[in-house]
């Protein structure tokens, strides 16, 4: 058990107290959030509690992070609603069956990826895609909950324009008491975040809302409340499987599997301490996958790590994953003995909790940073953001990923090749475009290649090098290959063609600063066997000095 829960060697009573404190602290956040997120997913609030038991226990047994607080989150919830609401009526029995099957599929995908050690695939989704996508989804989530906040019935929409239009057309239906209570709750929640109080503000808001509504019987005025919450633990039940439902749910399952894993990995990396071992991405995939797969057998819907609850868990002093078991035990007690207390909980309070939670996910500072550093990355951010708002959540993510991959391929296919000259100030060779005052040393053409040379960029590299071949005879070209870490057979063919083209003109071309792996690849080509002196590990300086020893440009 010590190894499973990642207990430190000196784990004692003091550490147990810290874990109990952290577990209870997370619990008071989790109960209202889980019910609110279940409502966001189009599910009965009690299913948020179901999703906060078995998945937490499974992650505590198999996960790697002692701080990650697994459970329902806003992002996965809106993705569930976005994908399944098109196939069945939210809150209906058929809808719930499809969501539970979706949970099994999400867990299965994550588990298979983890078993195949495919965690590296996560690296191919740009952080700018995720930042733009997350910001847009947060706005959509906020807009989708304004109806519940105001007491207005708004049908399921996954596009910002549709939500705004429908809210505008129904604003006159606002239930004033509901809107007033929801606005007050939202103000308290936001203020609590601003002043960073240690009080469990969401739980206090929920408690206050229940007392207020039950005392004044505001439910009789038309205010929507949660109503009866079934008591008792969920039983073991296999998800209802049909091949048709599997096909329809697969795109949503893939989206949730990848997004939720990226969220969890980002959290675990940000909370990891300096003296802890690095995160095992594939083990995390397997742990989250098992949490979802086994959770689906107990009526859970897709879960992942929560940014806010994980930060609270770490800040409250959690020492081990025992804290998560304490949280799960608290949810069990709540379901068994306290569900009657939630009968008068206003839905506008849950909407306020959701809006306050997702407000921090809108991150325009990441766009500003990307714009300053690299405009291409900023356009990727904007593309993912705009596509998600305008077209829809799943298409927005897909478009963002495709644009990001296209940009990556473009960068790989166009390595940086520049002409360099001697810069007296720094006493190094510098790009002549960036440092136009550099010395062009006759009779040399000096070039630097930054990037790998392989089949995907061979034509581009060849075209650039052939353009740089001097028109005058007897010129010498020197290529600084220090920035080339790898070369394949296609790249070697390019080198050969450029080499022999220079020979035809009666000129020479030298390849300087060759790194070991590149030199190893070139060693077996006929060209290097016939002309080994043209391929060297010596620097460009040394080659220039060797070919023109009387030069005094370095003085």
UniProtKB/TrEMBL annotation:
Residue stretches making up the STAS domain: 445-547
Highest taxon listed in the record's lineage: Bacteria
Pfam family, one: Sulfate_transp
BP GO annotations: transmembrane transport
Subcellular location per the Swiss-Prot or TrEMBL entry: Membrane
InterPro entries, per the entry: SLC26A/SulP_dom, SLC26A/SulP_fam, STAS_dom, STAS_dom_sf
Keywords: Membrane, Transmembrane, Transmembrane helix
PROSITE patterns named in the record: STAS
Protein's membrane topology: Multi-pass membrane protein
Transmembrane intervals: 20-40, 46-62, 69-88, 94-116, 128-146, 175-192, 199-218, 238-259, 322-343, 349-367, 379-410
Gene Ontology annotations for the cellular component aspect, listed alphabetically: membrane
NCBIfam families with a match to the protein in the record: sulP
Protein's name according to its UniProt entry: Sulfate permease
Species per Swiss-Prot/TrEMBL record: Alkalicoccus halolimnae
Gene: sulP
């Amino acid at each position: 058990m010590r190894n499973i829960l990642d207990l430190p060697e000196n784990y004692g009573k003091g550490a147990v107290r810290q874990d109990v404190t952290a577990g209870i602290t997370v619990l008071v956040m989790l109960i209202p959030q889980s019910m609110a997120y279940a409502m966001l997913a189009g599910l009965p609030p009690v299913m948020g509690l179901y999703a906060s038991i078995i998945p937490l226990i499974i992650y505590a047994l198999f996960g790697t992070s002692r701080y990650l607080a697994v459970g329902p989150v806003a992002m996965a919830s809106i993705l569930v609603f976005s994908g399944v609401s098109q196939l069945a009526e939210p809150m209906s029995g058929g809808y719930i069956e499809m969501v539970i099957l979706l949970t099994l599929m999400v867990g299965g995908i994550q588990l298979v990826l983890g078993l195949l050690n495919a965690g590296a695939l996560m690296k191919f989704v740009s952080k700018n895609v995720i930042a733009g996508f997350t910001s847009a989804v947060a706005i959509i989530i906020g807009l989708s909950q304004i109806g519940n906040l105001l007491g207005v019935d708004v049908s399921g929409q996954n596009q910002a324009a549709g939500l705004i239009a429908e809210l505008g057309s129904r604003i006159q239906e606002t239930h004033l008491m509901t809107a007033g209570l929801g606005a007050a709750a939202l103000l308290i929640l936001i203020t609590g975040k601003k002043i960073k109080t240690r009080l469990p503000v969401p739980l206090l808001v929920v408690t206050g809302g229940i007392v207020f509504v039950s005392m004044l019987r505001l439910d009789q005025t038309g205010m929507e409340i949660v109503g009866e919450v079934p008591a008792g633990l969920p039983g073991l039940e296999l998800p209802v499987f049909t091949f048709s439902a599997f096909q329809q749910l697969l795109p949503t399952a893939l989206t949730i599997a990848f997004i939720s894993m990226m969220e969890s990995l980002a959290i675990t990396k940000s909370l990891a301490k300096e003296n802890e071992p690095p995160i095992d991405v594939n083990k995390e995939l397997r742990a989250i996958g098992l949490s979802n797969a086994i959770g689906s057998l107990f009526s859970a819907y897709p879960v992942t790590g929560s940014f806010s609850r994980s930060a609270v868990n770490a800040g409250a002093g959690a020492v081990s994953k025992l804290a998560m078991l304490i949280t799960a035990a608290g949810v069990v007690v709540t379901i068994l003995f306290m569900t009657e207390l939630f009968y008068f909980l206003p839905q506008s309070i849950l909407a306020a909790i959701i809006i306050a939670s997702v407000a921090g996910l809108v991150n325009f500072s990441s766009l500003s940073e990307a714009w300053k550093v690299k405009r291409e990355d900023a356009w990727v951010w904007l593309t993912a953001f705009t596509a998600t708002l305008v077209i829809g959540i799943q298409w927005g993510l897909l478009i963002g990923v495709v644009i990001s991959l296209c940009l990556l391929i473009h960068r790989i296919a166009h390595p940086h090749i520049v002409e360099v000259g001697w810069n007296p100030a720094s006493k190094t060779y510098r790009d002549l475009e960036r440092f136009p005052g550099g010395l062009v040393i006759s009779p040399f053409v000096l070039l630097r290649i930054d990037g790998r040379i392989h089949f995907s960029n061979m034509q581009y590299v060849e075209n650039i090098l052939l353009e740089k071949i001097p028109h005058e005879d007897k010129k010498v070209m020197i290529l600084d290959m220090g920035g080339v870490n790898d070369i394949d057979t296609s790249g070697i063919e390019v080198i050969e063609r450029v080499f022999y083209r220079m020979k035809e003109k009666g000129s020479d071309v030298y390849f300087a600063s060759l790194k070991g792996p590149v030199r190893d690849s070139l060693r077996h080509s006929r060209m290097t066997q016939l002309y080994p002196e043209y391929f060297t590990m010596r620097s460009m300086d040394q080659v220039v000095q060797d070919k023109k020893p009387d030069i005094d440009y370095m003085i």
